[in-house]
Every structure is written in structure tokens, then in C-alpha cells.
User: Fold these one by one.
Assistant:
Number 1:
Amino acid sequence: MGRITRKILMYMSVLLTAAFLLGILFTDPLNLPLYHWRPPCTCCDRRLTTDTITPLRDNRTFIIAPYSDNRIHNNRAVRILSIIHHKEVKDLYCWFCCTVKKSVEVSQAEIDIHTDRFDFPYGTTDLVCMEPPGCYAKYLSVHTSPTGNITQLPLFRIQNLDMRPFSANFTVCISTMFGNYSNVLQFIQTMEMYRILGAQQVMIYLNNCSPQVEKVIQYYIAEGIVEVIPWPIQQYLRPARAWLYSMDVKDIEYYGQLATLNDCIYRNMFRSKFVLLNDIDEIILPIKHQTWDSLMESLQQQNPGVGVFLFENHIFPQTITTDGNFSNISSWKSLPGFNILQYIHREPDRSDYFNARKMIVDPRKVIQTSVHSVLKSIGDSKEVSLETALVYHCRTPLQKSLNKSSLIEDKTIWRYNASLIRNVNTVLSQVDLQK
């Protein structure tokens, strides 16, 4: 065989190998195209979307944020938290702005609607897109079609690309503050209890609140404790004030609470060691320990591999008050809201009713969460006994027929009264709530 013939065969072999590899990269086992290449462009050099909720043109898909997530995929995956109509959205596509290739490449999204939708038309959804090989994108767009003009699509930053040391041990996620929330005194007390127990950060998904609560929130923002995430869900959907569709026939449950809880977990994936998922009228109170640090250290030692800890919810009804004769609280009387130190009687748990537990989680082990349990996780969940800790839930009674003698006296909150009174008074001295 001549030298020229051998060279021709060698070049043909290289070309055939390259063609074969390209076929593997850009097709799936069923020979369906996974990635669509677009020619090099500078169309990603534009302003990023900064809104918390971004509608697509179909007005059936609402993007919250994309997060890099490789925990259950071998390749580089992006999980885009969103809200979609469970019937009317069939196909969605991720348009990746490839850093290395300086091109736009498109991959089809896997649409994973969370199972806890509670019969509402719209539900929290994960759009999972595999990043094209060699792309290394920092930004992407989401579209209802694999074709179009990316310059006309909203552009999002892919979050969680960089893992850094934790900035907090405990972050509290407060979902969907709405209804012109005005419980000033209980809000300040709860915030200060969070700080006493060990929280370094509190995230509030704020729909609306009273002017006085807004002043207090601004104080805590200046203190570096609170981060507010705007949550104008009513601009796009009709939010219900109930958790079940039959109780309030609207578009989405409880002001989109599930979407905010999931977003808070992903925002804090590499920022916080633990995340607490509860409402502003709830405090996870240790019984055997003084702080969340010592509580969680003990629970983790006893339960290696567990990433989700569930605490019993106990109602302390605001209809039954007790005067602890505490000094230095005269200034509290002029504030709107409830004084949690007056509520030390809890309703007995009902064995035939679901106990709506709240959680402290390792966010790196949670894939999807609901309100009272996780839907998908890495590792196990653990129900924490009442002897160890409880959720102090100060609200209107659930068992309205019970009188004081039928309730259980529980003064756990009083263990913190000295620090709490001092801290609340410090806040009130720095925030003018009289104007």
C-alpha cells in the first residue's frame, strides 16, 4: 500500500472518529437531539433579570431563579426553580450562554412539578437542564421553543457556581409575609429570640406589611440580620390564603409559600450550615439545650447521616394569657401585636390529627421541600421528640373549646425572658414607632 494511500486512510479514520464522538455528544441513545448549537454572538452581553418572579411569554411559566446542582447528575446540571401551570406547559428549553465557546446552545428541560400542589392549577416546579459539554455557562435564558432570538428573552445568572465558606450557621426562612402584616411586638420578639438562639440571618419573602413593621424590618436590614426577598406574586397569579384548592379557589397555594421555601433552601445551599423553615409566629425552642448550636450538635451526633430534623408543632393560644410580672416592659403596651411572654399554656396534641411539624435542614441534602416535610432529599429525616425541642407557635387557638385548666403549662419561653426583654428594649430605643 502506497504512502499517499495510507495517509488518506489515516485522515478518513480521524474524520470518522470525530463524527462518531460528535454523534455521542449531541444525541441521546434514542438518537434524539439534546443540544442545539447557535453561532457565536455577543447577545448575552446585556442586562440581567433581577426580579424575583419573571414571567415567560406564555404567561403560564414564571421563573424564580436558576441554580447549579450536580448532586444527582453526573454532568453539570442547572435546576431552575419556577412556577408553572401543571397542564398547559409541555415543553421548555434552556438557552445557555457558553463562556468558552462564546456561543448559545439550547437543551430541553426536564419538567418536574413538585408533588405537593394541593390541587391548585399552578405548582412549584424544577426545570432541570443539562449544560452542553464544554459550555461552562454563567448565564441562561428559558424559552418555550428551541428556536428564536435570545436577545428578546430574559437573561438569568446561574447561582451557586462558587462554593465559599459558610457565612452563617443558622438561617431562618420566613415565607410569604402578606396581608398587611402588622404584629409589631411579636415580630420584634421573634426576631430577637432567633438571635438569642443562634440565627445569623433571617430571609423574609415579603409581599406586604404595615408601615411600622416595615420600619422594624429596615432596622434589621441595617443590622445585617435580615435580607428581604420581594415577593409580588399577586402581579402574576391569584394567590390563595389557604393551603388547599377547595378552601380557596385561586391559582396557587398560600401566596406561593412552597416556591419561597424551596428558593430559600437553594439560596443558602453554600451560605448557611443549617436552614430553618418556619413562619414568623413560630420559634423552634430547645428543651434540653439553650441554643440551636448545642441542640443540632447533639442531634447530629446521635443521628449521623440525617439531614432533615422535624419538630413537633404546639399551639400556644393567644386567648389564654398569664402575667409574668416582668419589669421594664411598660413601653411594649403601646405597640400593636402580642407579647409572647404572656402565653405559656399550650394545647394538648391530638393523636388523630396531623401534627404540622417544622424543620431544621442541611440545605445540601434537600432536593425539594414541602412545608412540613421534604419531598426529595439525600439521606434520612428524623422526628425530634417533644422532650428535646418543640415549635412554640403563638397564634389563635385550634381547639377553641378548651379552657385554661385543659391546657398544659409550659414556661420554656421564660428561660429567655431577661435577654429577650433587654434586646427588645434596645430595638425600641433605636426604632421610632410612634410617628
Number 2:
Amino acid sequence: MNSSYFNSAAGAFLGILFVVMTLSIVSEGIYDAHEPETEGFAIEVAESSGDAGAPAEEAAPELIAPLLASADPAKGEAVFKKCAACHTNDASNANKVGPGLWNIVNRPVAAHDDFKYSAAMTEFSEGGSVAWDYEHLSNFLAAPKKYIKGTAMGFAGLKKIDERADLIAYLRTVGDTPAPLPEATETAAEPAATEPAAEPAAMEPAAEPAETPAPSE
């Protein structure tokens, strides 16, 4: 009895083993996967036209001069409230955290009396030869620490050029006499004058052929 049971169990085990091995061989034949020559996945990268390590060129700053004629000093006075904590705007020209801003437009850079400027601002002034003209003011107000690296001015800047134009238009009035506005420059070149086409020369009539003498008889 025990021997018969053992033989039946062994036969069943061998039968199952045979079926499993058969299925394994058949599946390998159907799904034949070859090992790759190199492990991992190949990732194709498109070639760039430029130098990957080269820094991107910065766009030239937008000019403030064309906007000043239409800028609003009243709006600029409201914008000045962002500056009032560090600067005065009256004729006393007193210094606070920053220098007084009376007569600031076209004033030489780092030239306010009794104010200690940073070394970066003093260097930028080039000994008083650089003035706070409209473009310098606009570029500095846009991003002080970026325009003059090392400046002690902690203002984050005015990114919108229209807002800067209004503020500078207001600063223009903060002085003994408003600074003159920059002259508009003509950018379009006048077309070159074209000379009229020369009239074709008059055709002279062809000369009549000379009479040939009649042949002698």
C-alpha cells in the first residue's frame, strides 16, 4: 500500500516536472531575447548649434529716452515712496541711508558732499567724469547690484521700464531747474535722391549715299 502510494506520487511529480520543462523550452523558443552587447539604454542627444558652455548673450538694455516725453511725473512721485525711506527729495538735500536726490539728474556720480560712497560707486564714477544721465539712472534703477556690482544700495530694482520712466520724470522736477529732456534722434535715414534718367540721345538721320556716276558707255 505504501509502495503503491509512493510510486503514484513519484509519477505525478515527474509528470509535472516534464510539463514544466516542456513549457520552459517552448517559451524560450517563442520569446528569444538576446543579451545586448552593452548594458543600459542608449540615449540620443541632438547636437546643439552653439557651444554648450558659452554663456547666453544678454539683451541690450532698452533705452529710456524715447519714453520720457510721455512719462507721468505724478505717477513717478508715487513710485518715489519706495525710495523715501533712504533718500530725501527736497532742497535741503540731506543725506539719510542714501544721499539726497535734489538735482540728481545729470549730477556727477558719487559727488554728494558728506556722504560716504561704496568703493564700487566711487570706481564707477571715474573721478567725477560719469554723471547720472537718463540712461545711467534707468539702468541703475532697473537692477542696482547688477549694474554696479558691489554697490551698497540694497534696493531690488524697478523691472518695468514705464515705471522707471515715470520715476525719472519726477526726479527731473526735483531740482533747481528741470534738466532738459534728451532730443529725439531720427532713426530713419532719408532716401537718397535719385538722379533723373538721362534722355536718350537724338538719333541723327543716316547720311544719304553719295551719287555714283553713271557708267560710261
Number 3:
Amino acid sequence: LWSKFGTAIGVGLGGLDMWTNQLFGFSFFGTLKHGLTDAQSLEPAAQHQKIDYPKPDGVLTFDRLSSVFLSNTNHEEDQPVHLKVKDMELQKRSEHD
């Protein structure tokens, strides 16, 4: 709704949509498309300013390893890989595009 109607109207319509969906189980708008695929709506990183994030302070922000620990994510050490790459050559080519 934001990409179709702008921020102010989009927020209002989004709130109405969430309210009606929660109370009545339907959406006035259904599923909307914004005209571009996710890939088409991206721009090269070189066209944007790099974000210089501050170092984690251990109070409000944490390093990645601590964040994984705090999320209580765990798995067995010998757990099999659940993602399989069918075509490694295609994968390697896509990394360089």
C-alpha cells in the first residue's frame, strides 16, 4: 500500500486493512503487487552510501555469535545439511554476476 499510495495514505489504508483482517477475517485489498519483482527493485550497492554501524556494546546491541546464542538457536553437530545445491556451476556463475 505504501508503494502504491505513498506513506501517509498507505499507512492509513494498511491500518484499516489490518483492522478488518483481524476483526472480520478479510482484506479489502487482497494481495497487491507493486509492479516489479524483488530483483528488479534492487539497485547496486555502489549507488548507495555505506552504513557505518557502531560496534556492539553488549548491552543494547550484540555481536552475531552472541545474538545466535541469545536466540536459543541450536542443532546437533552431526545434523545433515538441509539445503542442497543442484547445479554448482550455476551457483558459482551467479556469485560473480
